[in-house]
Amino acid sequence: MRLRTFTAPSISEAMRQVRAALGEDAVILSTEQVGKQVKLTAAIESARSVAATATAPAAGDDIETALHYHSVPRALADRLLATAGELEGGSPQQVLTAALRARFDFRPLTDHKPGRPILLAGLPGAGKSATLAKLAARAKVNGWAATAITCDLAKAGAIEQLATYARALEIPAYRAKDAATLRRAVAKTETSDLTLIDTLGTNPLKAGDLAQLREWAEAAGAEIVLVMAAGGDVIESAELAAAYAEAGATRLVATKVDVARRYGGILAAAEAGRLAFAGLGTSPEIASGLAALRADQLCRLILPASRAETRTTGASDNKSLSGTA
Amino acid sequence: MMIQETRRTAPTAATAPIANAIAVASGKGGVGKTWLSITLAHALANLSRRTVLIDGDLGLANVDIQLGLAPELDLADVLDNNVPLAQAAQRHEPTGLDIVAGRSGVASLATLSPARLTSFGRGIADLSGRYDRVLIDLGAGVERPVRYLAGAAQRTIVVTNDEPTSLTDAYALIKLLMQDGAKTKVSVVVNAAASKAEGERTYKTLAKACDTFLKMTPPLLGVVRRDPKVREAIRAQAPLLTRHPSSEAARDVEAIAQQLAQAS
User: Fold this and answer.
1) Cα A96 from chain centroid?
2) Total number of domains in chain B
3) Ranges of each domain in chain A
4) Interface ipTM
5) Residue A310: is its pLDDT beyond 60?
6) Which chain B residue has the Cα nearest residue A248?
7) Is B155 a member of any domain?
8) How far is residue B166's CA from residue B149's CA, in Å, rounded to a whole number?
9) Alpha carbon of B19 to those of A323, B135, B173, B242: distances in Å?
10) What is the pLDDT of residues B84-128, one digit of tens each?
11) What's the confidence (pLDDT) of residue A22?
12) Domain-located, residue B3
Protein backbone atom coordinates (compact mmCIF):
# COMPACT_ATOMS: atom_id res chain seq x y z
CA MET A 1 0.00 0.00 0.00
CA ARG A 2 1.23 3.47 -0.83
CA LEU A 3 -0.37 6.04 1.45
CA ARG A 4 -0.10 9.79 1.05
CA THR A 5 -1.76 12.87 2.45
CA PHE A 6 -2.77 15.84 0.32
CA THR A 7 -3.73 19.33 1.42
CA ALA A 8 -5.62 21.72 -0.84
CA PRO A 9 -8.06 24.64 -0.58
CA SER A 10 -10.92 22.52 -1.89
CA ILE A 11 -11.92 18.89 -2.03
CA SER A 12 -11.91 18.90 -5.83
CA GLU A 13 -8.39 20.29 -5.91
CA ALA A 14 -7.25 17.68 -3.37
CA MET A 15 -8.87 14.93 -5.46
CA ARG A 16 -7.07 16.23 -8.54
CA GLN A 17 -3.77 15.93 -6.66
CA VAL A 18 -4.62 12.40 -5.54
CA ARG A 19 -5.38 11.29 -9.09
CA ALA A 20 -2.21 12.94 -10.42
CA ALA A 21 -0.03 11.27 -7.79
CA LEU A 22 -1.66 7.88 -7.28
CA GLY A 23 -3.80 7.39 -10.36
CA GLU A 24 -7.48 6.67 -10.88
CA ASP A 25 -7.51 3.61 -8.61
CA ALA A 26 -6.54 5.52 -5.47
CA VAL A 27 -8.82 5.04 -2.48
CA ILE A 28 -9.65 7.95 -0.19
CA LEU A 29 -9.08 6.78 3.38
CA SER A 30 -10.01 9.98 5.20
CA THR A 31 -10.88 13.62 4.70
CA GLU A 32 -10.44 16.36 7.23
CA GLN A 33 -10.98 20.09 7.34
CA VAL A 34 -7.86 21.77 8.71
CA GLY A 35 -8.58 25.49 8.97
CA LYS A 36 -9.46 26.59 5.44
CA GLN A 37 -7.72 23.62 3.88
CA VAL A 38 -8.93 20.13 3.12
CA LYS A 39 -6.58 17.36 4.17
CA LEU A 40 -7.10 14.11 2.35
CA THR A 41 -5.43 10.76 2.97
CA ALA A 42 -5.42 8.39 0.03
CA ALA A 43 -3.81 5.07 -0.75
CA ILE A 44 -3.29 2.66 -3.56
CA GLU A 45 -2.55 -1.03 -3.33
CA SER A 46 -0.65 -2.39 -6.27
CA ALA A 47 2.34 -4.45 -7.15
CA ARG A 48 4.14 -1.27 -8.12
CA SER A 49 3.95 0.05 -4.59
CA VAL A 50 5.96 -2.92 -3.36
CA ALA A 51 8.30 -2.87 -6.31
CA ALA A 52 10.62 -0.12 -7.26
CA THR A 53 9.49 3.42 -7.36
CA ALA A 54 13.07 4.58 -7.93
CA THR A 55 13.60 2.02 -10.68
CA ALA A 56 12.16 2.30 -14.14
CA PRO A 57 8.74 0.61 -13.97
CA ALA A 58 9.69 -1.90 -16.66
CA ALA A 59 12.63 -3.08 -14.58
CA GLY A 60 10.48 -3.60 -11.51
CA ASP A 61 7.86 -5.44 -13.51
CA ASP A 62 10.34 -7.75 -15.19
CA ILE A 63 11.89 -8.76 -11.89
CA GLU A 64 8.52 -9.31 -10.32
CA THR A 65 7.37 -11.48 -13.21
CA ALA A 66 10.57 -13.50 -13.06
CA LEU A 67 10.33 -14.08 -9.31
CA HIS A 68 6.73 -15.13 -9.81
CA TYR A 69 7.74 -17.57 -12.54
CA HIS A 70 10.35 -19.15 -10.27
CA SER A 71 7.81 -19.48 -7.42
CA VAL A 72 10.05 -17.47 -5.12
CA PRO A 73 8.26 -17.35 -1.73
CA ARG A 74 6.25 -14.17 -1.47
CA ALA A 75 7.97 -12.73 1.59
CA LEU A 76 11.39 -13.22 0.00
CA ALA A 77 10.16 -11.80 -3.32
CA ASP A 78 8.79 -8.77 -1.48
CA ARG A 79 12.12 -8.22 0.20
CA LEU A 80 14.04 -8.55 -3.04
CA LEU A 81 11.65 -6.13 -4.73
CA ALA A 82 11.90 -3.71 -1.84
CA THR A 83 15.70 -3.85 -2.04
CA ALA A 84 15.51 -3.46 -5.81
CA GLY A 85 13.27 -0.46 -5.27
CA GLU A 86 15.89 1.28 -3.19
CA LEU A 87 18.45 0.98 -5.97
CA GLU A 88 19.01 3.63 -8.58
CA GLY A 89 17.93 2.69 -12.09
CA GLY A 90 19.89 0.34 -14.31
CA SER A 91 18.74 -2.65 -16.33
CA PRO A 92 16.51 -5.26 -14.64
CA GLN A 93 19.53 -7.58 -14.60
CA GLN A 94 21.71 -4.99 -12.87
CA VAL A 95 19.03 -4.18 -10.33
CA LEU A 96 18.27 -7.82 -9.53
CA THR A 97 21.98 -8.67 -9.29
CA ALA A 98 22.45 -5.87 -6.79
CA ALA A 99 19.37 -6.92 -4.83
CA LEU A 100 20.57 -10.55 -4.70
CA ARG A 101 24.00 -9.37 -3.59
CA ALA A 102 22.40 -7.33 -0.82
CA ARG A 103 20.10 -10.15 0.32
CA PHE A 104 22.38 -13.19 0.04
CA ASP A 105 25.94 -14.19 0.78
CA PHE A 106 28.14 -15.44 -2.04
CA ARG A 107 31.25 -17.36 -1.02
CA PRO A 108 32.38 -19.60 -3.90
CA LEU A 109 34.28 -22.66 -2.73
CA THR A 110 36.82 -22.31 -5.51
CA ASP A 111 37.83 -18.71 -4.75
CA HIS A 112 40.07 -19.32 -1.75
CA LYS A 113 41.71 -22.34 -0.18
CA PRO A 114 39.41 -23.18 2.69
CA GLY A 115 41.15 -23.30 6.05
CA ARG A 116 39.54 -26.63 6.87
CA PRO A 117 38.11 -29.71 5.18
CA ILE A 118 34.86 -29.40 3.26
CA LEU A 119 32.22 -31.99 4.13
CA LEU A 120 29.57 -32.36 1.45
CA ALA A 121 26.15 -33.26 2.80
CA GLY A 122 22.74 -33.63 1.25
CA LEU A 123 19.93 -35.92 0.24
CA PRO A 124 20.71 -39.15 -1.60
CA GLY A 125 21.20 -38.34 -5.26
CA ALA A 126 21.76 -34.62 -4.74
CA GLY A 127 25.06 -34.80 -6.58
CA LYS A 128 27.55 -34.88 -3.70
CA SER A 129 30.05 -37.26 -5.31
CA ALA A 130 29.96 -35.44 -8.63
CA THR A 131 30.38 -32.13 -6.79
CA LEU A 132 33.38 -33.56 -4.97
CA ALA A 133 34.95 -34.59 -8.27
CA LYS A 134 34.18 -31.21 -9.82
CA LEU A 135 35.67 -29.37 -6.85
CA ALA A 136 38.77 -31.56 -7.03
CA ALA A 137 39.04 -30.78 -10.73
CA ARG A 138 38.75 -27.03 -10.03
CA ALA A 139 41.43 -27.42 -7.35
CA LYS A 140 43.73 -28.99 -9.94
CA VAL A 141 43.15 -26.02 -12.26
CA ASN A 142 43.95 -23.66 -9.37
CA GLY A 143 47.13 -25.62 -8.68
CA TRP A 144 45.92 -26.79 -5.27
CA ALA A 145 46.69 -30.20 -3.81
CA ALA A 146 43.34 -31.92 -3.20
CA THR A 147 42.43 -35.01 -1.19
CA ALA A 148 39.19 -36.96 -1.27
CA ILE A 149 37.66 -38.93 1.58
CA THR A 150 34.42 -40.82 1.40
CA CYS A 151 32.29 -41.83 4.34
CA ASP A 152 29.76 -43.37 1.99
CA LEU A 153 30.49 -47.05 2.36
CA ALA A 154 26.87 -48.11 2.10
CA LYS A 155 26.01 -47.20 -1.45
CA ALA A 156 26.88 -49.83 -4.03
CA GLY A 157 29.88 -48.71 -6.02
CA ALA A 158 30.53 -45.60 -3.95
CA ILE A 159 34.14 -46.53 -3.24
CA GLU A 160 34.76 -47.53 -6.85
CA GLN A 161 33.23 -44.26 -8.02
CA LEU A 162 35.54 -42.23 -5.80
CA ALA A 163 38.52 -44.37 -6.81
CA THR A 164 37.73 -43.71 -10.47
CA TYR A 165 37.51 -39.97 -9.94
CA ALA A 166 40.65 -39.96 -7.80
CA ARG A 167 42.66 -41.89 -10.36
CA ALA A 168 41.56 -39.65 -13.19
CA LEU A 169 42.34 -36.53 -11.17
CA GLU A 170 45.51 -38.02 -9.70
CA ILE A 171 44.58 -37.18 -6.13
CA PRO A 172 44.86 -39.32 -3.00
CA ALA A 173 41.61 -40.84 -1.78
CA TYR A 174 40.64 -42.39 1.53
CA ARG A 175 37.60 -44.06 2.98
CA ALA A 176 36.36 -43.70 6.52
CA LYS A 177 33.86 -45.97 8.17
CA ASP A 178 33.20 -43.84 11.25
CA ALA A 179 34.12 -40.59 12.97
CA ALA A 180 37.31 -42.02 14.45
CA THR A 181 38.63 -43.26 11.09
CA LEU A 182 37.59 -40.00 9.50
CA ARG A 183 39.65 -38.12 12.09
CA ARG A 184 42.67 -40.29 11.26
CA ALA A 185 42.12 -39.86 7.52
CA VAL A 186 41.95 -36.09 7.87
CA ALA A 187 45.15 -36.16 9.93
CA LYS A 188 46.91 -37.65 6.90
CA THR A 189 45.85 -34.74 4.69
CA GLU A 190 47.89 -32.03 6.37
CA THR A 191 49.66 -31.02 3.18
CA SER A 192 46.43 -30.91 1.23
CA ASP A 193 45.10 -27.50 0.16
CA LEU A 194 41.58 -28.81 -0.22
CA THR A 195 40.29 -31.85 1.63
CA LEU A 196 36.90 -32.95 0.36
CA ILE A 197 34.72 -35.34 2.32
CA ASP A 198 31.84 -37.17 0.68
CA THR A 199 29.08 -38.46 2.91
CA LEU A 200 26.27 -40.86 2.35
CA GLY A 201 22.91 -39.29 1.65
CA THR A 202 21.33 -38.10 4.88
CA ASN A 203 17.70 -38.00 5.83
CA PRO A 204 17.30 -34.65 7.59
CA LEU A 205 13.95 -35.76 8.98
CA LYS A 206 15.82 -38.30 11.09
CA ALA A 207 17.55 -36.75 14.08
CA GLY A 208 20.06 -39.61 14.04
CA ASP A 209 21.26 -38.78 10.53
CA LEU A 210 21.89 -35.14 11.37
CA ALA A 211 23.59 -36.06 14.62
CA GLN A 212 25.92 -38.37 12.70
CA LEU A 213 26.65 -35.60 10.20
CA ARG A 214 27.52 -33.27 13.03
CA GLU A 215 29.74 -35.93 14.59
CA TRP A 216 31.64 -36.43 11.33
CA ALA A 217 32.07 -32.72 10.81
CA GLU A 218 33.40 -32.31 14.33
CA ALA A 219 35.76 -35.28 13.97
CA ALA A 220 37.12 -33.83 10.73
CA GLY A 221 37.07 -30.21 11.90
CA ALA A 222 35.17 -29.67 8.66
CA GLU A 223 32.79 -27.08 7.29
CA ILE A 224 29.48 -28.61 6.21
CA VAL A 225 28.41 -27.59 2.73
CA LEU A 226 24.91 -28.53 1.66
CA VAL A 227 24.60 -29.97 -1.83
CA MET A 228 21.06 -29.51 -3.13
CA ALA A 229 19.50 -30.11 -6.51
CA ALA A 230 17.80 -27.09 -8.05
CA GLY A 231 14.20 -27.31 -9.16
CA GLY A 232 12.91 -28.78 -5.91
CA ASP A 233 9.71 -27.76 -4.21
CA VAL A 234 10.10 -24.34 -2.58
CA ILE A 235 8.83 -25.29 0.88
CA GLU A 236 10.63 -28.61 0.87
CA SER A 237 13.91 -26.99 -0.13
CA ALA A 238 13.58 -24.34 2.58
CA GLU A 239 12.80 -26.89 5.27
CA LEU A 240 15.66 -29.15 4.22
CA ALA A 241 18.09 -26.25 4.23
CA ALA A 242 16.92 -25.16 7.67
CA ALA A 243 17.46 -28.69 9.00
CA TYR A 244 20.96 -28.91 7.53
CA ALA A 245 21.72 -25.44 8.85
CA GLU A 246 20.74 -26.66 12.30
CA ALA A 247 23.31 -29.42 11.85
CA GLY A 248 25.90 -26.78 11.04
CA ALA A 249 25.79 -26.24 7.26
CA THR A 250 26.90 -22.76 6.24
CA ARG A 251 27.12 -22.85 2.45
CA LEU A 252 25.10 -24.23 -0.42
CA VAL A 253 26.09 -25.79 -3.73
CA ALA A 254 23.12 -25.89 -6.08
CA THR A 255 23.35 -28.80 -8.49
CA LYS A 256 21.54 -29.93 -11.62
CA VAL A 257 20.58 -26.41 -12.65
CA ASP A 258 20.84 -27.58 -16.25
CA VAL A 259 17.92 -29.94 -15.72
CA ALA A 260 15.77 -27.48 -13.76
CA ARG A 261 13.74 -24.51 -14.90
CA ARG A 262 12.61 -22.93 -11.67
CA TYR A 263 15.05 -21.73 -9.06
CA GLY A 264 12.78 -20.49 -6.26
CA GLY A 265 13.73 -23.60 -4.28
CA ILE A 266 17.42 -22.77 -4.01
CA LEU A 267 16.67 -19.13 -3.14
CA ALA A 268 14.25 -20.27 -0.43
CA ALA A 269 16.83 -22.78 0.80
CA ALA A 270 19.61 -20.20 1.05
CA GLU A 271 17.31 -17.86 2.90
CA ALA A 272 15.80 -20.39 5.29
CA GLY A 273 19.17 -21.87 6.22
CA ARG A 274 21.03 -18.56 5.95
CA LEU A 275 23.42 -20.37 3.66
CA ALA A 276 25.96 -18.64 1.45
CA PHE A 277 25.91 -19.61 -2.22
CA ALA A 278 29.09 -21.55 -2.89
CA GLY A 279 28.77 -23.20 -6.26
CA LEU A 280 26.55 -24.15 -9.13
CA GLY A 281 26.45 -27.53 -10.82
CA THR A 282 25.75 -26.66 -14.44
CA SER A 283 26.38 -29.88 -16.31
CA PRO A 284 27.46 -33.49 -15.74
CA GLU A 285 30.91 -32.58 -17.07
CA ILE A 286 33.35 -33.05 -14.22
CA ALA A 287 35.95 -30.66 -15.59
CA SER A 288 33.61 -27.82 -16.45
CA GLY A 289 30.37 -28.59 -14.71
CA LEU A 290 30.84 -26.47 -11.60
CA ALA A 291 30.69 -22.70 -11.62
CA ALA A 292 31.46 -20.33 -8.79
CA LEU A 293 28.01 -19.04 -7.95
CA ARG A 294 27.94 -15.26 -7.74
CA ALA A 295 25.12 -12.75 -7.73
CA ASP A 296 25.31 -12.01 -11.45
CA GLN A 297 25.17 -15.69 -12.27
CA LEU A 298 22.22 -16.28 -9.98
CA CYS A 299 20.53 -13.30 -11.62
CA ARG A 300 21.07 -14.81 -15.07
CA LEU A 301 19.36 -17.99 -13.89
CA ILE A 302 16.34 -16.07 -12.67
CA LEU A 303 16.20 -13.34 -15.25
CA PRO A 304 18.00 -14.28 -18.46
CA ALA A 305 19.06 -11.18 -20.40
CA SER A 306 17.48 -12.63 -23.50
CA ARG A 307 15.72 -15.80 -24.50
CA ALA A 308 18.93 -17.11 -26.00
CA GLU A 309 20.69 -16.97 -22.67
CA THR A 310 18.87 -19.39 -20.47
CA ARG A 311 21.71 -21.27 -18.86
CA THR A 312 25.03 -20.45 -17.33
CA THR A 313 27.98 -22.62 -18.11
CA GLY A 314 31.16 -23.48 -16.32
CA ALA A 315 34.29 -21.43 -16.75
CA SER A 316 36.64 -24.10 -17.99
CA ASP A 317 36.78 -25.26 -21.56
CA ASN A 318 38.58 -28.48 -20.73
CA LYS A 319 35.97 -31.13 -21.35
CA SER A 320 38.20 -34.15 -21.76
CA LEU A 321 37.12 -35.60 -18.44
CA SER A 322 33.52 -36.44 -17.94
CA GLY A 323 31.61 -37.97 -15.10
CA THR A 324 28.41 -39.87 -14.92
CA ALA A 325 27.19 -39.40 -11.38
CA MET B 1 0.11 -8.03 -5.27
CA MET B 2 1.36 -9.74 -8.37
CA ILE B 3 3.52 -12.27 -6.60
CA GLN B 4 2.00 -15.69 -6.67
CA GLU B 5 0.41 -16.86 -3.46
CA THR B 6 3.03 -19.53 -2.85
CA ARG B 7 3.08 -21.54 0.30
CA ARG B 8 5.06 -20.18 3.18
CA THR B 9 8.58 -21.02 4.23
CA ALA B 10 8.44 -19.14 7.51
CA PRO B 11 7.31 -21.38 10.29
CA THR B 12 3.90 -20.53 11.58
CA ALA B 13 2.49 -21.79 14.83
CA ALA B 14 1.49 -25.32 13.97
CA THR B 15 -0.56 -25.62 17.11
CA ALA B 16 -3.22 -23.25 18.38
CA PRO B 17 -1.99 -19.83 19.50
CA ILE B 18 -1.01 -19.47 23.15
CA ALA B 19 -4.28 -18.52 24.82
CA ASN B 20 -3.00 -15.97 27.32
CA ALA B 21 -0.24 -14.49 25.18
CA ILE B 22 -0.47 -10.97 23.79
CA ALA B 23 2.04 -9.78 21.22
CA VAL B 24 2.68 -6.06 20.85
CA ALA B 25 3.91 -5.14 17.37
CA SER B 26 4.11 -2.02 15.27
CA GLY B 27 5.64 -2.46 11.85
CA LYS B 28 7.45 0.84 12.22
CA GLY B 29 9.84 1.60 15.07
CA GLY B 30 9.54 4.65 17.28
CA VAL B 31 5.78 4.56 17.85
CA GLY B 32 6.05 3.76 21.56
CA LYS B 33 5.63 0.01 21.31
CA THR B 34 8.04 -0.88 24.10
CA TRP B 35 6.70 1.81 26.39
CA LEU B 36 3.15 0.61 25.76
CA SER B 37 4.17 -3.03 26.41
CA ILE B 38 5.70 -2.14 29.76
CA THR B 39 2.84 0.08 30.85
CA LEU B 40 0.19 -2.41 29.76
CA ALA B 41 1.99 -5.23 31.58
CA HIS B 42 2.25 -3.04 34.66
CA ALA B 43 -1.46 -2.20 34.50
CA LEU B 44 -2.30 -5.91 34.19
CA ALA B 45 -0.16 -6.67 37.24
CA ASN B 46 -2.01 -3.90 39.10
CA LEU B 47 -5.23 -5.74 38.22
CA SER B 48 -3.82 -8.77 40.07
CA ARG B 49 -3.02 -10.64 36.91
CA ARG B 50 0.22 -12.60 37.16
CA THR B 51 2.04 -11.10 34.20
CA VAL B 52 5.35 -11.73 32.47
CA LEU B 53 6.77 -9.36 29.88
CA ILE B 54 9.10 -10.88 27.31
CA ASP B 55 11.30 -8.40 25.51
CA GLY B 56 11.10 -10.07 22.14
CA ASP B 57 12.43 -6.96 20.44
CA LEU B 58 15.09 -9.23 19.01
CA GLY B 59 18.09 -7.23 17.98
CA LEU B 60 17.19 -3.93 19.60
CA ALA B 61 15.95 -4.66 23.04
CA ASN B 62 15.20 -2.03 25.60
CA VAL B 63 12.57 -3.04 28.13
CA ASP B 64 15.33 -3.38 30.74
CA ILE B 65 16.69 0.05 29.86
CA GLN B 66 13.31 1.73 30.24
CA LEU B 67 12.87 0.10 33.63
CA GLY B 68 16.46 0.52 34.74
CA LEU B 69 17.00 -3.22 35.15
CA ALA B 70 20.37 -4.94 35.21
CA PRO B 71 19.36 -8.47 34.23
CA GLU B 72 21.64 -11.37 35.05
CA LEU B 73 20.14 -13.53 32.37
CA ASP B 74 18.47 -12.39 29.17
CA LEU B 75 16.98 -13.64 25.96
CA ALA B 76 20.41 -14.34 24.45
CA ASP B 77 20.97 -16.91 27.22
CA VAL B 78 17.62 -18.47 26.39
CA LEU B 79 18.29 -18.63 22.67
CA ASP B 80 22.01 -19.44 22.66
CA ASN B 81 22.51 -21.41 25.86
CA ASN B 82 19.15 -23.13 26.25
CA VAL B 83 18.44 -21.40 29.55
CA PRO B 84 14.70 -21.95 30.22
CA LEU B 85 12.59 -18.80 29.86
CA ALA B 86 11.29 -19.27 33.41
CA GLN B 87 14.85 -19.01 34.70
CA ALA B 88 15.54 -15.86 32.72
CA ALA B 89 12.35 -14.22 33.99
CA GLN B 90 13.36 -11.70 36.62
CA ARG B 91 11.02 -10.15 39.15
CA HIS B 92 10.76 -6.35 38.90
CA GLU B 93 9.50 -5.46 42.37
CA PRO B 94 8.33 -1.89 41.68
CA THR B 95 5.81 -3.14 39.11
CA GLY B 96 5.23 -6.71 40.33
CA LEU B 97 6.06 -7.93 36.85
CA ASP B 98 8.33 -10.74 35.79
CA ILE B 99 10.52 -9.64 32.92
CA VAL B 100 12.62 -11.55 30.40
CA ALA B 101 15.06 -8.93 29.15
CA GLY B 102 16.27 -8.81 25.57
CA ARG B 103 19.77 -7.94 24.58
CA SER B 104 20.69 -4.97 22.43
CA GLY B 105 23.07 -5.20 19.57
CA VAL B 106 22.96 -8.96 19.12
CA ALA B 107 22.16 -8.85 15.46
CA SER B 108 21.95 -12.60 15.11
CA LEU B 109 18.85 -12.66 17.26
CA ALA B 110 16.94 -10.79 14.60
CA THR B 111 17.61 -13.55 12.10
CA LEU B 112 16.90 -16.67 14.11
CA SER B 113 16.72 -19.89 12.17
CA PRO B 114 13.21 -21.31 11.79
CA ALA B 115 14.08 -24.21 14.10
CA ARG B 116 15.28 -21.95 16.91
CA LEU B 117 12.33 -19.67 16.41
CA THR B 118 10.01 -22.63 16.76
CA SER B 119 11.75 -23.76 19.91
CA PHE B 120 11.50 -20.20 21.30
CA GLY B 121 7.77 -20.32 20.57
CA ARG B 122 7.51 -23.60 22.46
CA GLY B 123 9.40 -22.05 25.36
CA ILE B 124 6.83 -19.24 25.54
CA ALA B 125 4.03 -21.80 25.49
CA ASP B 126 5.66 -23.65 28.40
CA LEU B 127 6.14 -20.42 30.32
CA SER B 128 2.55 -19.31 29.74
CA GLY B 129 1.25 -21.93 32.18
CA ARG B 130 2.78 -20.03 35.08
CA TYR B 131 1.06 -16.73 34.33
CA ASP B 132 -2.32 -15.16 33.68
CA ARG B 133 -0.94 -12.98 30.91
CA VAL B 134 2.20 -13.19 28.78
CA LEU B 135 3.10 -9.97 26.96
CA ILE B 136 5.61 -10.15 24.14
CA ASP B 137 7.15 -6.88 23.06
CA LEU B 138 8.00 -7.63 19.44
CA GLY B 139 10.63 -5.93 17.37
CA ALA B 140 9.72 -3.33 14.83
CA GLY B 141 9.47 -4.53 11.28
CA VAL B 142 7.54 -7.21 9.49
CA GLU B 143 10.22 -9.86 9.26
CA ARG B 144 9.80 -13.55 9.97
CA PRO B 145 10.61 -13.58 13.71
CA VAL B 146 8.09 -10.80 14.33
CA ARG B 147 5.33 -12.49 12.37
CA TYR B 148 6.08 -15.88 13.82
CA LEU B 149 5.89 -14.66 17.41
CA ALA B 150 2.76 -12.64 16.66
CA GLY B 151 1.20 -15.74 15.13
CA ALA B 152 2.03 -17.73 18.27
CA ALA B 153 0.02 -15.35 20.49
CA GLN B 154 -3.74 -15.39 20.86
CA ARG B 155 -3.84 -11.62 20.42
CA THR B 156 -1.64 -9.19 18.57
CA ILE B 157 -1.83 -5.49 19.31
CA VAL B 158 -0.63 -3.42 16.39
CA VAL B 159 0.55 -0.03 17.61
CA THR B 160 0.50 2.97 15.31
CA ASN B 161 0.46 6.74 15.45
CA ASP B 162 -0.93 9.23 12.96
CA GLU B 163 2.17 9.41 10.76
CA PRO B 164 1.65 8.02 7.24
CA THR B 165 4.78 5.85 7.51
CA SER B 166 3.56 4.34 10.77
CA LEU B 167 0.11 3.67 9.27
CA THR B 168 1.63 2.13 6.14
CA ASP B 169 3.86 -0.18 8.16
CA ALA B 170 1.05 -1.16 10.54
CA TYR B 171 -1.02 -2.01 7.47
CA ALA B 172 1.85 -4.04 5.97
CA LEU B 173 2.19 -6.04 9.17
CA ILE B 174 -1.55 -6.78 9.32
CA LYS B 175 -1.54 -7.77 5.67
CA LEU B 176 1.40 -10.14 6.06
CA LEU B 177 -0.10 -11.72 9.17
CA MET B 178 -3.28 -12.34 7.20
CA GLN B 179 -1.35 -13.77 4.27
CA ASP B 180 0.59 -16.02 6.66
CA GLY B 181 -2.74 -17.37 7.83
CA ALA B 182 -1.79 -16.39 11.40
CA LYS B 183 -4.54 -17.29 13.84
CA THR B 184 -3.83 -14.36 16.15
CA LYS B 185 -6.61 -11.82 16.82
CA VAL B 186 -5.33 -8.49 15.60
CA SER B 187 -6.46 -5.21 17.20
CA VAL B 188 -5.14 -1.68 16.96
CA VAL B 189 -3.89 0.81 19.53
CA VAL B 190 -3.29 4.39 18.39
CA ASN B 191 -0.52 5.84 20.49
CA ALA B 192 0.44 9.46 21.11
CA ALA B 193 -2.84 10.81 19.73
CA ALA B 194 -3.52 14.53 20.05
CA SER B 195 -6.96 13.66 21.42
CA LYS B 196 -9.34 10.72 21.63
CA ALA B 197 -11.12 11.98 18.51
CA GLU B 198 -7.85 12.36 16.60
CA GLY B 199 -6.84 8.85 17.63
CA GLU B 200 -10.13 7.46 16.41
CA ARG B 201 -9.71 9.30 13.14
CA THR B 202 -6.25 7.72 12.72
CA TYR B 203 -7.73 4.31 13.46
CA LYS B 204 -10.47 4.84 10.88
CA THR B 205 -7.88 5.62 8.22
CA LEU B 206 -6.10 2.34 8.91
CA ALA B 207 -9.39 0.44 9.22
CA LYS B 208 -10.58 1.80 5.87
CA ALA B 209 -7.36 0.69 4.19
CA CYS B 210 -7.69 -2.81 5.71
CA ASP B 211 -11.35 -2.97 4.78
CA THR B 212 -10.74 -1.84 1.19
CA PHE B 213 -7.66 -3.87 0.37
CA LEU B 214 -7.79 -6.80 2.77
CA LYS B 215 -11.55 -7.15 3.27
CA MET B 216 -11.14 -7.25 7.03
CA THR B 217 -11.26 -4.64 9.76
CA PRO B 218 -9.16 -5.05 12.89
CA PRO B 219 -11.00 -3.58 15.90
CA LEU B 220 -9.77 -0.57 17.83
CA LEU B 221 -8.53 -1.65 21.24
CA GLY B 222 -7.79 1.82 22.47
CA VAL B 223 -6.37 5.29 21.98
CA VAL B 224 -3.53 6.52 24.19
CA ARG B 225 -3.35 10.29 24.29
CA ARG B 226 -0.07 12.15 23.87
CA ASP B 227 1.12 13.11 27.30
CA PRO B 228 4.36 14.90 28.27
CA LYS B 229 4.44 12.84 31.47
CA VAL B 230 5.24 9.75 29.40
CA ARG B 231 8.49 11.21 28.15
CA GLU B 232 9.34 12.42 31.64
CA ALA B 233 8.83 8.94 33.11
CA ILE B 234 10.87 7.26 30.38
CA ARG B 235 13.73 9.70 30.99
CA ALA B 236 13.57 8.91 34.70
CA GLN B 237 13.54 5.15 33.88
CA ALA B 238 10.43 4.90 36.04
CA PRO B 239 7.09 3.24 35.25
CA LEU B 240 4.42 5.78 34.30
CA LEU B 241 1.78 4.14 36.50
CA THR B 242 3.98 4.63 39.57
CA ARG B 243 5.29 8.07 38.73
CA HIS B 244 2.17 9.66 37.25
CA PRO B 245 -0.72 7.33 38.09
CA SER B 246 -3.43 9.86 37.29
CA SER B 247 -2.00 11.11 34.01
CA GLU B 248 -4.14 10.91 30.86
CA ALA B 249 -1.85 8.34 29.24
CA ALA B 250 -1.90 6.18 32.38
CA ARG B 251 -5.69 6.16 32.41
CA ASP B 252 -5.83 5.32 28.70
CA VAL B 253 -3.49 2.36 29.13
CA GLU B 254 -5.42 1.16 32.16
CA ALA B 255 -8.60 1.16 30.11
CA ILE B 256 -6.91 -1.10 27.55
CA ALA B 257 -5.57 -3.35 30.33
CA GLN B 258 -9.10 -3.73 31.72
CA GLN B 259 -10.20 -5.23 28.38
CA LEU B 260 -7.17 -7.52 28.20
CA ALA B 261 -7.62 -8.66 31.79
CA GLN B 262 -11.18 -9.75 31.09
CA ALA B 263 -10.87 -11.13 27.57
CA SER B 264 -10.00 -14.78 27.35
Assistant:
1) 14
2) 1
3) 2-44, 47-103, 118-302
4) 0.75
5) no
6) B113
7) yes
8) 20
9) 57, 11, 21, 29
10) 999 999 999 989 999 998 876 554 445 667 778 888 899 999 999
11) 81
12) no
